[in-house]
Amino acid sequence: MLPIPIHKTFTYSVTDEEANYLQKGMRVAVSFGKTKLFTGLVFEIHQNPPTLYEAKEIHQILDDKPLVNEIQLKLWQWIANYYMCALGDVYRASLPSAFLLESETIIYKNEAFNNEELLEDDEFLIFEALQHQSQLTIHQVVDILGKKKVMPIVNGLIQKSAIYIKEQIYEQYKPKLVKYVRLHAAYTSDDALNSLLEELSRAKKQRQAVLTFFQLATSKKPIKAKDLETKANVSSAVLKSLVDKNIFEFYEIQTDRINFKGDTNSLKTLNEFQQKALTEIKTSFQQKDVTLLHGITSSGKTEVYTKLIQEVLDSGKQVLFLLPEIALTTQIITRLQFYFGNQISVFHSKYSMNERVEVWNNVLENKTKAQIILGARSSIFLPFSDLGLIVVDEEHETSYKQFEPSPRYNARDAAIVLAKMHQSKILLGSATPSLESNFNAQQKKYGFVALNRRFGNVQLPKIELIDVKEKQRKKEMKGHFSDRLLKLITEALEEKEQVILFQNRRGYSPIVECKTCGVAPQCPNCDVSLTFHKFKHELRCHYCNYQRAMPNSCAACGSNTLDTKGFGTEQIELELKELFPDYKIGRMDLDTTRGKFGYQKIIGAFEAREIDVLVGTQMLSKGLDFDNVSLVGILNADTMLNFPDFRAHERAYQMMVQVSGRAGRSKKQGNVAIQTYNPYHQILQQVSITDYQAMYKEQLQERWQYKYPPYYRLIKITLKHRDYNKVDTAINWLFKALYASFGEHVLGPTAPAIARIRNQYIKNLVIKIPPKQSLANTKNQVSKIKNTFEAVKDFRPIRFIIDVDAY
Ligand code: ADP
Ligand code: ZN
Ligand code: ZN
Q1: Looking at the predicted structure, is the pLDDT value of residue 175 above 80?
Q2: Peptide bond into 710 cis (omega under 30)
């Protein structure tokens, strides 16, 4: 198997000796084409010489035991067949890139390496060449050494950390721990306090520190050691001596959050509802391999998962815990690490090459520290040998689907297949299950368990809808805020509580338009208008990252009448800073989280209550658990509802319920305020009483009526090319060919909302597959038509993309 976008495998010849040594799943260095070197994977060892070409010899065997097991190979084949993609693409997507050296791979010297005496002769030659040249390709290594068999040498250099290969290296995140001060428990009574002040009457500085502490303590906020030092005008030594006397104690909020509800790292005791859910899940698993847990936000699903995980670990099997996006879920990682400490490994494409290789090897060898793997979608590709449980948290999340590049798979669905291959159980969890999963549960394909009570019996937040049109008419809007929302924000802040505001658009305003001639500046590479970013005073394309300074005058008519329309997170942040100058406003969107640890920094600051109001995009809706947020505001619900996609309503419901779920999680019932022009929209009505069942029934009805999943399946075909006419001719040809086979079930051709991105014109066709039509036959037919298409010389340069279950 070669890591190239080709369906086929290729036959190479080996000697008897090599044949005896080789096993399926080992890597071999081979050449392909005239000069290219690749890392191939042994897929089959057989005696049938190829008929169409002469089998080449392999260069070398790269492993002494298989790197990939039989179950993985089976999963790869399933993915290639189901998602109609090349086996080579799946192979490439599955292995950390350090395992896949090829001629074009670029290597760099590790500047920190100084153990040159460890290097073998050939290794040293390469290392030395890298002193003169900052980078080399494997191809150049072949030239320098004058031999083809170079992969083990390069592998050796990587293992000794003398070189690394091109990719971004991310550091592990270490949260900054802020030191806080509190009074020792012995001094909480008034009597104790008075005698304390007496006691300190001669230690003036210490007394000053204690008095200042009480002043600050009236604000109910945690008190930072640094702030206390400044305000009391004392040195850190003074605080230290008060801690030594057991009057103060230092603590750190990050760890405190976790220690909060139990001091040891033993699992929490489930409440009766969680316990009942756990029992039902176990009963369900006796009959069904897949079970859906529908647990409302903050019902304590994570604690239920941990009990199941513990039992599977005790039985000696492995656990895979899938998360939609690692960056956003540091909180869950911390929680699970707290319970399972050294048995847990995190796997993520943003981890450095070495970390990924290490996790791969630990899973392969079934090491203790890889008993639980916590990871985003690509962790389904790890070499598990004995999975006992897969948990798919927030199973409704779109980020489980990979859209680009191929393989375009859905990790939740592939995980169900993976579980079957291991005879493992799989639990899908969500507060807002996807329509498909809930449908499967209703059809009794999956088991189903509900958890309808918030932990601690806190009620779900009170949700109110605010009619913006009416507020405008009555002149009760200040900027983008209704008087009602402002009142709720003010009340929360006065109670020292925190606020989350959701606006699903970043930048300052998405449209810039000339008031004189109506022209809006466009991206030169895409068919989309540019978004204004005020902080940098520039216009940016959110599709290709094109950017330029905001012009002073209109390029079309020359007037100085450029105006902005609509609003994004940046504008909301600025308005808030004016409205609430005494509070700290933070913003979380793609622009503020670009840095290495962008998310974690902002989430950490919000947890530590250094931010009072956090404005953000949908990043805020994903599994975050803050205990002091009492209000969530949604500034404009309408953009979500008007999205041109058959899932728009389902998504809008999920997003709003999930963001709302961040309010009032621990102490008292929270508030949610949703601003909209259309308060009678059925989805908003359903959100306002968290009526999942009503949303589900109504959406399902529409899916049936308009022939969409879960009843019909969808295959989407996309063509892309720089030349509009080429794409247009090709898509019409394709439509006719598909129409001949599938008739009215072919939709299109259509141009997407953004019809050109990065100078590529885009056209789509969608094939709908009715419930009774064979999926396999349909795919065969589509493949045949694709082959015919690719045989047309004119069409060859056009990109042909197939996306199965394109949603
Ligand atoms: P969900 O994932 O369902 O939204 P979480 O698992 O995040 O809910 O739980 C919400 C909060 O309640 C968390 O802070 C969690 O630590 C706490 N919690 C849940 N179950 C328990 C329990 N059995 N004992 C103590 N605290 C719990
Ligand atoms: Zn103009
Ligand atoms: Zn662009």
Answers
A1: no
A2: yes
